[in-house]
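Sequence, please.
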């Protein structure tokens, strides 16, 4: 993978009844570093967030995973986890 490709991520809400996807999305997007490209989609049931993230050229290949690990470390996002995409 080159450092200019989008990476697709899917976040899933684990226990029902926790913060809705829209709230989680606002928090997650607020944690993105400046200059990163992104798009998103919320599933209708509110239990999944689909993200497309691209860090700036020259970023390490691990930049998105590192950012995601740090973002999901926020206690307000503890009910959300990454689902493997294939």
């Amino acid at each position: 993978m080159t450092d200019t490709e989008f990476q697709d991520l899917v976040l899933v809400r684990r226990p029902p009844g926790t913060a809705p996807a829209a709230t989680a999305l606002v928090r997650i997007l607020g944690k993105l570093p400046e200059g990163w490209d992104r798009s998103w989609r919320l599933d209708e049931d509110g239990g999944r967030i689909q993200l497309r993230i691209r860090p700036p050229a020259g970023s390490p290949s691990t930049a998105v995973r590192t950012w995601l690990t740090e973002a999901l470390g926020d206690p307000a996002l503890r009910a959300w986890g990454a689902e493997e995409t294939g």
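The chain has one domain: 7-83.
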